[in-house]
Amino acid sequence: MKNITNIQKFSIHDGDGIRTTVFFKGCPLKCEWCHNPETQKFEKEMQVDREKCTGCGACAVVCPNGAIHMEEGRPILDAEACVFCGKCTRFCPTGAREVIGQEYTVKELVKELMKDQMFYEESGGGVTLSGGEVMSMDMDYLLAVAKELKRQDVTLTIDTCGFVPYEKFQELLPYVNTFLYDVKVMDPELHKKYMGTDNALILENLVRLAKDGARIYIRIPTVKEVNGNEENMKETIAFLQEHDIHPAQINLLPYHDTGSGKYRKLDMEYKGTDLHAPDKEEMEALAALFINAGYKNTKIGG
Ligand code: SF4
Ligand code: SF4
């Protein structure tokens, strides 16, 4: 699988300098606060903005596969019958419909990414592959993209949740400049509750990656009700110290719910409604724990 939902230009929060970030579709975790729900499933999806849909029925008329029927003025999709040809999106007069996920060949993707080479060179930036979970994508494809970027002197950052077999990291490591590595919560039970799986593999991979000499930015999405507390941060620090891990940067990323509106368009339920970011003083106090423990390059935000 290697569907791409978005290629975002001029990103400044996904690594060093100005970057072009590629969002791949599909993730093995199910974080309650995920702000990119369109990247959770590996398969293509149809998104409908209910506020824009006027119920005109044009999509149902033009679909060559009969995959849409109207019910009480609303288009209903038979996902089994849809082949994601995009015809209904082109005929929708209000732009309410959108196919999420597009395949690019290695050549097409690299060509698109190289359009921004000038910005990479001037800002010390490059390409970030993100998601979803980019490391869950087809490895031959990822390796081909990574090798081609390296050949063209473009630095590559990988934004990962870490929940993949370590062999994948090993294969990609020679072509990666920086890993943005999510460490969400240290308590395995809480991790399971909010992410759908425990954190054993994630932490094990982090230790191995650090031992293998990777440049790592640790990213901690910080949620008051889950991990935004002294206990979790102290446990994170103890883990880093125990395993002699020296991240190039630690980023505490305050929770935000800007992605919650996307859930409705995908007929998904947003489960993060009761979650909040710690306030400014609390965030500063949490960051100070890392700084005082010797992790001077700790920042609030990306
Ligand atoms: S993408 Fe194609 S197959 Fe799917 S509903 Fe639209 S027109 Fe039909
Ligand atoms: S064509 Fe667009 S506006 Fe018309 S019913 Fe379909 S989704 Fe709604």
Automatic annotation (TrEMBL):
Keywords in alphabetical order: 4Fe-4S, Iron, Iron-sulfur, Metal-binding, Oxidoreductase, S-adenosyl-L-methionine
Keyword Oxidoreductase: yes
Cofactor: [4Fe-4S] cluster
Molecular function per GO: 4 iron, 4 sulfur cluster binding; glycyl-radical enzyme activating activity; metal ion binding
All residue ranges annotated as the 4Fe-4S ferredoxin-type domain in the record: 44-73, 74-102
Keyword Oxidoreductase: yes
Radical SAM core domain segment(s): 13-296
Pfam families for the chain: Fer4 (PF00037), Radical_SAM (PF04055)
Catalytic activity reported: glycyl-[protein] + reduced [flavodoxin] + S-adenosyl-L-methionine = glycin-2-yl radical-[protein] + semiquinone [flavodoxin] + 5'-deoxyadenosine + L-methionine + H(+)
Family to which this protein belongs: Belongs to the organic radical-activating enzymes family.
NCBIfam families in the record: PFLE_PFLC (TIGR02494), T4HPD_activ_SAM (NF043069)
Protein name as catalogued: Glycyl-radical enzyme activating protein
